[in-house]
Amino acid sequence: MGLLLLEALGALLVLVLIVWWTMFSGRRGGERARQDEDSPPPPPPPPGA
Question: Where do Pro residues bias regions lie (predicted)?
């Protein structure tokens, strides 16, 4: 019984580490600003293109 609890605790620890890694392992300065947020949208293509 104790071995099952130890294994469950280990699996929970692995799950918490995976979630922590995916949440907080991004870029140090945050996400880069997207190029299209700073510039106006491109003009529509000409008709028939």
Answer: 40-49
